[in-house]
Structure formats: C-alpha cells, structure tokens
C-alpha cells in the first residue's frame, strides 16, 4: 500500500467534524487513500445496497452510521424513498415493526417506547438506545424500517438438527454454506473453544443468517436505496452477507466498516487499513472515528 499511516494522520488534521464523539476519516480501499467526506457521499450511487458493518452498541458507531444514512438520503433527494434493514429485527415481525414505526413517526412513541415495542420480549429494550441516532433519521426523513433476521429459535433448531429440520419456507433460495476463507475466520473468532461438530453447527447457523438477511432485505425493501445495519463479521472482507447481495440484488452493493479509532494506536490503525494478504480489504470504505 502506498499510503502510510503518517499520511493518514496528516489528513486527519483537516477532516470535518462528524459527531460530538470526535472527527473521522474515510479510507477508500480501492484507491488506497483517504478521501474527504463530501467526496465519499457524492461518489455513492443513487440506487444501491449499502452495507453498514458495525460493532454493536457503540454510540459513536451508530451515530456515524446515522450521519452517513442522512447525508446520503439528502444528497439523493430520497426522503420517503429509502429503506433501513436491521439485523436485530426478525422478518416475521415486520407487521409489528411497521406499526411501531408509524407510531414513532407520529410522535406517539419516544425512543425508549419505540424500542420497547420493537422488542416486546426483551427485559432491557433500552440496551438498544445507541440506535436512536439511526431511528431518528428514519423518522426525520420518513424511511422504511425492516427486519431481516430469522428468530433465535429457528437458528437454534438449525444448529442442533440441521437444515432439513426447517420448514421449506424458512430456507431462502440463496442459502449455502460460507466459503473456506469465511470458515477459517469463523474458527479463529471462536478461538477453538468448542468441538469440531459444534463449530460446524454454529457455522451453518452463521451462513444461514447471511442468506436470510440478504434475501429478506431484497424481499421486503420497497426502495432502490437501502442500507443494511449488520455486525461487521457478516460483511468483513466483503464476505458473509455481501456475496449474497451481489448475487440476488439488481442494485450495486457498497460495503463500509465503521471503526472507533479513538483509542487505537497507529500500528492498530495501520493493520486495519492494510489489506489482508489472504482476504483482501475489510470493506470498500473504512469509516474511522477519531
């Protein structure tokens, strides 16, 4: 890579504020260089599937995601014509999700009441409060919110009994196991703390989740501009959910990874930015909050 971490930090001196949590940079992994935020937004297609790879429950991350959604929608004049798919919500609950969103947009529900309605079986729906940033953009710009995931019960049955234990309508037509690189990274993430048999069951559930999320995003999204909020392991190295979206969507697929770099060392940032010799870059764009 030609761009060094020193160059990146020089660039950081001139980046624009994103949120109260600090400043950020956009790193274009195809160009192998930092670009200005406005350049990033202006370069995006008007119609697309943008994958917002995240670390969960980090307010700096969710705030940055909300800003990117808002600025992209405004740039494209797509108010009332964009969709946000959220990994945390199940597609079978779409009727409840849509009803809750109507009440939220009508100011009948505040943020916390909205999450309580979205997660009626949760003992702590307030855990999701960092996502209020995204929800407020949905309210302000009149977007669609959809659930994309399968239920935990379905995935547990799959993991323990196999794919044949599910009803045919529960298995999307694009379902397949992830590839060797995905399995290798999955094993590393699990750190060898389970038997090979158990690991294969969990990997089946991981792969199934990727196929369900991508399929339901395409099935339920009513707009050509759609954002997918998903844990970054599902999209790192343009793997997981990404090949499915590329395969089944008629829209271009753009991948991002949001990183809170405020406590990272230069060496750690350099490692994130440098493409893996085996897996390639983490995403099309790295959005690093400093």
Q: Keywords for this structure?
A:
290 residues; alpha/beta; 11 helices
Account of the 3D structure:
With 290 residues, the chain is of the alpha/beta class. Helices cover 43% and strands 19% of the residues. The chain is built from eleven helices and nine strands. The protein has helices at residues 5-12, 37-43, 59-75, 94-105, 111-118, 132-141, 152-161, 180-190, 196-220, 241-248, 266-273, and strands at residues 17-19, 22-28, 33-35, 48-54, 82-90, 144-149, 225-231, 253-260, 285-289. Strands 1, 2, 3, 4, 5, 6, 7, 8 and 9 form a nine-stranded mixed β-sheet that branches. The longest helix is centred in the last third of the chain and has 25 residues, at 196-220. Mean pLDDT is 92; it is low at 1-22.
Brief characterization of the structure:
With 290 residues, this protein is α/β, with parallel strands linked by helices. 43% of the residues lie in helices and 19% in strands. Strands 1, 2, 3, 4, 5, 6, 7, 8 and 9 form a nine-stranded mixed beta sheet that branches.
* CA gyration radius, whole angstroms: 19 Å
Number of helices: 11
Helix content: 40-55%
How many strands in all?
9
Structural class: alpha/beta
The biggest beta sheet is recorded as: 9 strands, mixed
Distance between the termini: 22 Å
Strand content of the residues, in percent? 15-25%
Fold topology:
Blueprint: H1 5-12, E1 17-19, E2 22-28, E3 33-35, H2 37-43, E4 48-54, H3 59-75, E5 82-90, H4 94-105, H5 111-118, H6 132-141, E6 144-149, H7 152-161, H8 180-190, H9 196-220, E7 225-231, H10 241-248, E8 253-260, H11 266-273, E9 285-289
Parallel strand pairs: 4-7, 4-8, 5-6, 5-7, 8-9
Antiparallel strand pairs: 1-2, 2-3, 2-9
Helix pairs in contact: 3-6, 4-5, 7-9, 9-10
